[in-house]
Amino acid sequence: MSRKFSKWGLARSAMIIFSITILGQIIRYFVNGEFKLTVITGAFLGTAPLALINLIHVRRKKDNTPEIDERTWQNVLKFIAYASQILFLVLMVVLTLISFIGIESISIVYLWIIVTINMLVIGLGSMIVMRR
Amino acid sequence: MAVKNRMKELRLERGIKQIEMAEALQVTRQTMTAVENAKYNPSLELALKIAKYFDLSVHDIFILEEEIE
Asked: Which ipTM value was assigned to this complex?
């Protein structure tokens, strides 16, 4: 991966997320016949700050060193490996507690919360580890 | 057996700044500090790049701790 390309990683991710949202809405329009502008607005409000942060970071950076190198990759991979195991352990404990209480069925929303927390912890944690 | 290195010594001898070397080797400044302080062992690729940068062999820069004694 060229250096010029890699320093715009965050902006590129934001663009991909925004494009996928638009594509999803287009597919939805053809399938259900509805196109929600609020979804597009939400995606824009979520991704625009990421692109802006990336732009500010690139403008402020004066040296020619890369953002990511072999050590940072190793740190991120190590973090993901540990974080995944810890999150799985937490999930197991929570599941055991829920089973003990006697709850036998839960709403799908709770599963989505777990997935979102997992993505948040891994995403934010990786960003912090990458800076070290 | 820990791996020690003479990177800082060689760099200071030649009056090279850490950031200049990081730019030349295409690594972050934090990685340079970690390697110099023996907190991180570089990959074979990076070790060879460092050796090439100083125009020395890998053995002249990186030393296994048992060899020091």
From this structure: 0.84
Q: How far are the Cα atoms of A96, B7, B41 from residue A117, in angstroms, in the given order?
A: 19, 42, 33
Rg (alpha carbons) of chain B, rounded to whole number: 11
The residues near A40 (Cβ < 8 Å, ≥ 6 apart) are: A21, A22, A25
Write out chain A residues lying below 8 Å of B19, CB-based.
63, 65
pLDDT in tens, A86-121: 999 999 999 999 999 998 888 899 889 989 999 899
CB contact under 8 A, A70 and B31: yes
User: Taking the alpha carbons of A20, A129, A81, A91 in that order, is the dihedral positive or negative?
Assistant: negative
Query: Are residues B30 and A3, on separate chains, in Cβ contact within 8 Å?
Result: no
Contact B19 A63 (CB under 8 A): yes
What is the spatial distance between Cα A93 and Cα A82, in angstroms, rounded to a whole number? 17
Q: What is the pLDDT of residues A43-93, one digit of tens each?
A: 999 899 989 988 888 888 888 888 889 999 999 999 999 999 999 999 999
Query: Taking the complete model, does pTM exceed 0.90, yes or no?
Result: no
